Amino acid sequence: MPTKDLDLLLREGALQPPKGFFERRPPNSKPFLKNFDEYLKLYKQSIDDPEKFFSQMAIENLSWSKKFDYGRLPTNEKIFNKETCDAAAWFVGGELNACYNCVDRHALLNPNKPAIIYEADEPNEGYILTFGELLKKICQVSQILKQLGVKKGDTVAVYLPMIPEAIITLMAIVRIGAIHSVIFAGFSSASLRDRIIDANSKIVITSDESKRGGKIIETKKIVDEALKQCPAVTNVLVFKRTGNSHIPWTKGRDLWWHEEINKYIPYIPPTAVSSEDPLFLLYTSGSTGKPKGVQHNTAGYLLGALLTTKYVFDVHPDDILFTAGDVGWITGHSYVVYGPLLNGATTVVFEGTPAYPNYSRYWEIVDKYKVTQFYVAPTALRLLKRAGSKYVENYDLSSLRTLGSVGEPIAPEVWEWYNEFVGRNNAHICDTYWQTETGSHIIAPLAGITPTKAGSASFPFFGIDPVIVDPVSGEELIGNDVEGVLCVRNPWPSMARSIWNDYNRFLDTYLKPFRGYYFTGDGAARDKDGFYWILGRVDDVVNVSGHRLSTAEIESALIEHHLVAESAVVGFPDELTGSAVAAFVALKDKSLYSDDDNANDIKKQLIVTVRKEIGPFAAPKMILLVNDLPKTRSGKIMRRIMRKILAGEEDQLGDVSTLSNPDVVQHLIDVVKSN
Ligand code: WTA
């Protein structure tokens, strides 16, 4: 928490929220908070009595079909229990429906209000869907799913591009109490297969093809490839996106969306579920090769997505939020789908890329629809900054009040560019720190309220008590000006509840490494004024262009190639993508790569292997063929040594004499230098 008052923070160089911020919000809407002092007051309440604070928020902001009996259980333990490590359950005894909260209640009030602005890959091919139209389509798709046998508690796999049907699908699933499991459409058939099997999904929803950046992706073909090894899948519902005729089709199993949807009436009532019933699974990468199905439950997640959209981005019902993220990742879940709709605002669904047909695409969209909140990952901003400010200058961006950043630290020069060229020094930059597992922002400035420093995510959101822990002793580091690993002391409503079918792995990954805390996996510092600075992952996770990748998962993919004996994958800094992936690979037959042509050919094959096993976005930027990998005497690969060599810090390798093969170090240095 800030230890100084606002005036002092501002005098010492923190940036003031833009002047006139509140005057520019939609007419007839009141500010949610008056000022920073009110944030401090509410924050204190949320930590002192989280049950009371969030109960009140849940009653005021969500619609319940049955009111809850307890704000949270266990009631008397405000922090994680050091013995059991269990997370809390929220709003126990309550019943509600997620789709009702996102769509019905707004459709009832204002059916003609735009819910979705669809901006297709080709400019001018999009359209607007109102809350009334959205509700009708959702109800029809819900009936298709029911007809196919989907029941409350079943999982449905979704492999769709960024089109309105992605939102319709998610809402149709949760309307009948089922659980969605979205698989990012950049994943390969092998990854899709593993996730369908792990979640035991029997129905898959996809499209014939996808369009992105002017390119066609053969989506259904990838699904069919995956389904060769998913005997449990009974049906595939296919949305016709391009209508190209040559897509594979299995009669009896595959159904066209447009043929099915018209068979059904425009309304069915939503199914109420319990607060703690699962809402969705989202697979994410961790320290081991096996992806984790992060499980979010209904009421707590909804409240987190709703409140952060409202307070962090200052979203009022008449605002138009453009989150340039994919629904295949958590950012798309919380800030393309749930957050905006729960607040009754309009959300932009953008199918394309920032560079197609040219680097002005985002700004053209902002100008065209008068977007009020824009949210993107720094990797896209780096690309656009490099392309040049001429692509942004000629657009009217004066509608923008909030500019969000997510997924990786935003370097001060990129922050300044965002502020100056996009925000025109008149929008509030909100660097939001959070994770798939946290469900919604946990450290972020509140737009219009919180002073900021370029590169810091500033202060915790309501109900989050961040702790910086010494990674060696596990002791909390008290006070300001400290650096360590970032943990959270107390459970909060939108934190993940489990890893699908593997609660013990959930405890082992997040709640047991530092008993009594939730462990984020990130390093962080709290500066002299109490601002938080995220320093990056301390585990084997690499952030490439805002995509979270597990080095272990890439290693498991490489080993699938018949020539590979073993590999070690590490991240290294990259100007454009934040981090990039380097793979050190030792082949079974070392004579194979003695000549350069042969070595290049093998490297290409290895890249194809990763693309096939995981997806194109995971392909290593650099492959280094080596004789051996540095190992401890117990056989553990020392990835730290490879990181240091890649960073050109071979003078900081420390004592390598304890390695079982110390000679390998010079060999690695030579290979990196000659690459
Ligand atoms: C990183 C994305 C610095 C962090 C929402 C985290 C960030 C991981 C920020 C989660 C930020 C996210 N500044 N780093 N503002 N936001 N990260 O699950 O390492 O895809 O642990 O969720 O992204 O990635 P995930």
TrEMBL record:
GO terms for cellular component: cytosol. Keywords: ATP-binding, Ligase, Nucleotide-binding. Residues 39-102 form the Acetyl-coenzyme A synthetase N-terminal domain. Residues 104-497 form the AMP-dependent synthetase/ligase domain. PROSITE patterns: AMP_BINDING. SUPFAM superfamilies: Acetyl-CoA synthetase-like (SSF56801). The keyword Cytoplasm does not apply. InterPro entries: Ac_CoA_lig, ACAS_N, AMP-bd_C, AMP-bd_C_sf, AMP-binding_CS, AMP-dep_synth/lig_dom, ANL_N_sf. GO terms for biological process: acetate fermentation; acetyl-CoA biosynthetic process from acetate. One of its GO terms (molecular function) is acid-ammonia (or amide) ligase activity. It catalyses: acetate + ATP + CoA = acetyl-CoA + AMP + diphosphate. Its EC number is 6.2.1.1. Residues 553-636 form the AMP-binding enzyme C-terminal domain. The keyword Lipoprotein does not apply. PANTHER family: ACETYL-COENZYME A SYNTHETASE, ACETYL-COENZYME A SYNTHETASE 1. Belongs to the ATP-dependent AMP-binding enzyme family. This is Acetyl-coenzyme A synthetase. It comes from Pachysolen tannophilus NRRL Y-2460. The lineage of its organism: Eukaryota, Fungi, Dikarya, Ascomycota, Saccharomycotina.
